[in-house]
Amino acid sequence: MRRSNGPGAAIVRTISHVAAIFGLVLSGAMLLPALVDLSDGNRDWIVFVGTGTTVAAICSLVAVATRGAGVRPTPRFGFLLVTTIWLVSVFVGTLPLYFAETELSFAAAVFESMSGLTTTGATVISGLDALPRGLLLWRSLLNFLGGIGIVGMAILILPSLRVGGLALFKLESSDRSGKLLPRVSQLAAGIVAIYGAMTLLCALLYFALGMSLFDAVNHAMSTLATGGFSTHDESIGFFESDAILMVATVFMIAGSLPFVLFIRFFLPRRFQRWRDPQVTLFLVLCLVLSLVLAATRVVINEVPIGEALISATFNLVSVITTTGFVSEDFTLWSNAAIGIFFLAMFIGGCAGSTAGGIKVNRIIILYELVRASFGQVIRPHSVQRLKYGRDDISIETIQSVTIFIFLFFLSLLVGTTVLSMCGLELLTAFSASLTAVGNVGPGFGPAVGPAGNFSSVSDPALWILSFLMLIGRLEIVTVLVILSPGFWRD
Fold first, then answer.
1. How many domains does the chain divide into?
2. pLDDT tens digits, residue range 249-285?
3. 278 in a domain, yes or no?
4. What does the alpha-carbon distance between residue 488 and residue 32 come to, in Å, rounded to a whole number?
5. Are 111 and 192 in contact (CB under 8 A)?
6. Under a CB-based contact definition with an 8 Å cutoff, are residues 324 and 227 in contact?
7. I need a labelling partner for 73 at 20 to 30 A (CA). Which of 161, 283, 361, 454 fits?
8. Is residue 253 part of a domain?
């Protein structure tokens, strides 16, 4: 039988080749936890070596068999490639968690891997303090790789396959920044270098402030990724250090800013373009909400001002950046505090960052749309211009933002309904759905709140939550468009 050389075959070959490359990257990353477990005398090193070797062998065969593939980049191809890479990466990340001595069901292992790579930070594992160090490192590595964006790193590979790397990066991160560097690969290399350097600096500061080297490295990877995986059940509150909380706050904010802006900072004559409305609004929101939250702690809980400022700022920033670290159970503070945290869970960080949520740039565009609509009602014959900073907002952008926000709340509503049908109490179902779609981590209530985890959630509900985390990380449209019948026509 002759091999098909049509466009469909070329698409399958290209997607298979890129997915195999990412499988090879993840299989290579398994060597690090294998070495840690081997040095600790833990038998899970056999799981990491066996799984990594098997995945590497399969992916090598696929990569060799499909090399030389190349297709003309189209939006439909981009959507399919992005989703496939994430699904393959999540599956590979699941294998060590499933075969290790954690006794996780397959649904729970998929949930943990999805939570790590999507930087949600929710976990089904209890007893993290007693967990083998290799598994703890693997969870943090999933956070680290997911933080920079599996598709973001693909920019280094896709140009050689004649695939538009920058366009695919935008599909995943919603970053609409202009092309700053002459080559897409230079942009990717700059982002990876900055991400790695900030992670290293964060780890050094954690270590200097009293963390062990292992804890410092793991928490630094989770901090810059705004992922929130910890090596302790008490999260970062285990260390009982205000200095560590302040360092974590700074780097969580850094991880929630557009990484392109850090590149602009080092480019000649680009500093004047470093201003971005979403950055200004994001920092203002962090400051104002933290001060209001601290005030509620002082007035209602009678906490000293210094302690209130540090704890309020850290936990507020952790939620608004969708990191998910906690220093204490903030749902016990007051109803006013719960209201502030509930609002923060929707906001998220900036576009082009590792954070999730609705994103601040969309909030600005939505505000401009509402302002212009009100102006049109008051002065029917006036011309209302929509501006984002100094730039005009296009009709395409308005449509994109409107569709995303509609689908965000629709996903939240449907997720809540289905989770309720799976046996979750309504508040828990809503909270779990919101924290999954927004990639936040902790929710509200005793089961999925800051003091709990998702270990009590049934397997069917975990599958639903895994899907919600995926569409939240890929910004909903990327995944849902593939499920539409029109996507597969022609």
1. 2
2. 999 999 998 887 777 776 655 544 557 789 999 999 9
3. no
4. 40
5. no
6. yes
7. 361
8. no
Q: What are the pLDDT digits (tens) for 404-442?
A: 899 999 999 999 999 999 989 998 999 999 999 999 988
Tell me which of 173, 200, 215 is where a domain ends: 173
| DSSP reduced 3-state for 392 | strand
Answer yes or no: is 152 within a domain: yes
∠ CA(253), CA(256), CA(259), 5° rounding? 115
- pTM over 0.85? The answer is yes
Domain that holds residue 422: 400-437+458-490
Residue 420 forms part of a structural domain: yes
Ordered DSSP codes for 77-102 = HHHHHHHHHHHHHHHHHHHHHHHSTT
Strand partners, 391: 388
Q: What are phi and psi of 455, to 5 degrees?
A: -65, -25
Last residue of a domain, one of 173, 196, 212: 173
Provide the 10 A C-beta neighbour count for residue 234.
15
- Give the chain's residues under pLDDT 70: 1-7, 69-73, 150-185, 266-274, 490
pLDDT of 273: 52
Which amino acid, 329? Answer: D
Question: Contact 259/181 with Cβ under 8 angstroms?
Answer: no
CA of residue 51 relative to chain centroid, distance: 25
pLDDT at residue 6 in the model? 61
DSSP 8-state secondary structure symbol assigned to residue 457: S
